[in-house]
Amino acid sequence: MLHSNGVAKVQRLENYPQFVWHSVLQEEHHDILTVSKIKGKMSALPEQFLPPTYAVEFVVRGTICGKINNTSVELKANDGAVIFADHVLKTEKVSEDCELYVLGFTPLLVEELNLKVPLPQLAQLFMRPVWKIGEEKIGVLVRYFELLRDLLAEGNRLVIVSMLRSLMYYLLEEYSIDAKQSHQLTRSEEICGRFLSLVESYCRDHHRIDWYASELCLSSKYLSNLVKQTMGNTAGACIGEAIIRQAKSLLLSTTLPIQDIADRLGFCNQSHFGTFFHREVGMSPRTFRKRADIPSF
Q1: CATH number of the domain at 13-181, please?
Q2: Which of 202, 223, 53, 190 is nearest to 122 (CA)?
Q3: Residues sharing a CB contact under 8 Å with residue 204, sequence separation 6 or more, in sequence order
Q4: What is the pLDDT of residues 45-60, one digit of tens each?
Q5: Which CATH architecture describes the domain 187-292?
Q6: Which of 155-159, 161-165, 224-228, 292-296 has the lowest mean pLDDT?
Q7: Distance from C-alpha of 182 to C-alpha of 288, rounded to nearest angstrom
């Protein structure tokens, strides 16, 4: 996902000739699904073209070198990547002949998709987000993306969501096949992956590490030490980052009152949520939403 939080929003696709096409599904005047085809070298994908979301991309040709969540990666032809929210791909080098497809969607749309993904597979996705797609499958994926583009032009939400659900299961099946062929996660990586997938699913309801440790049948101290040693980040920080990702998405992709967002994220009141958000982001939820609505040229 060529994405940079520092890139100003843009108003016209013509400003970015690397986009062959770009289609969106909107709700309450906010993008909740974006589908794009990109060709050529680009240092970052403007935020306007990707909601604060989960993202899937696959490279048809060329290479992209960079980091996902501070881990160095290289995406080549027929490589796919699943990126969770702020685990952005920070690009360091993109080849001139690069061609890729990018899909972005919000957590609210994920809830609507209601995908049934086994916990071990989610663990793999968190720890190893890049995988090789069978060459014979690339053409199928291209047709999926082009069909989604056409369906978005028609605007039939039920059909769009059904097609997106089918695409996600197709991608997950491909990932599962490649994961079996690659070396398995270490025990520490598997536990961290399971922890992160639980956090992504339940951070709205559970803010404390004790609950996650209990779900994993571990002590809180053991889980905290293992996450720190394996990922270089504390378990509490992982939970906080997930809550902030959810908060940003709700602020930018809905018109919900901040009190309602605080309720959805499990805070006892708006003030508590505001204090937490300001500490993590450096501004209030209201200021964050207001700044995002101001176009930059």
Answers
A1: 2.60.120.10
A2: 190
A3: 243, 246, 264, 265, 266
A4: 665 666 667 888 899 9
A5: Orthogonal Bundle (1.10)
A6: 292-296
A7: 41
